[in-house]
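pasting DUF4817 domain-containing protein for the record, 187 residues
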Amino acid sequence: MVLSLEQRIFLLLEYHHLEHSCVQTRRSFRRRFDVRRDPSDNAIKALIKKFERTGNVSDDRVGNVGRPRSAVTESNADAIQQVILQQPRTSVRSVASRAALRRMITHRIISHMFTYKIQTCQALSVKPLMQVMISRTLCCSLSIRVISMLETYGSRTRHILTLMALSTSRTGAFGEPKTHMLLYLHP
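structre below
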């Protein structure tokens, strides 16, 4: 429980006024400040010991407690953005060194600036995307072909069926099923 300066002073004066009784000090604190949770006996005794030792009841830890301030500020984001605009294909480490920031802070700022996954990128042409679309349509048409092959050739095509099951469970570089391998195994 964090106490204000007024509450600390009240506890100190009330403790000495009530002849060093923590229980009565807590009751009067509850009545005066209308709070549900009052400070514990140990907290009151620690406050009294601190006052006797230092002559002060203020909290020394005011600037030192809590989560440290974030380095994700507008000025840091602007500095990183300027470095990226000058050299767009540079790594996070070199951006961090040029902006004079830590690498993890730079990475966090960049991931907020570019919400997609940070990765080494290459230009995608239309051809690989068309291959993905074609292979997905081949999946459906290939299963129809295998069924017709079973009807035509009988039991000779069982190995093709097992290969189809194995090859469709794997994925290629673009996430497409590798069913096009079956086209080469087709007798």
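Confidence is low (pLDDT under 50) at residues 157-170, 176-187.
Residues 126-153 form the longest helix (28 residues).
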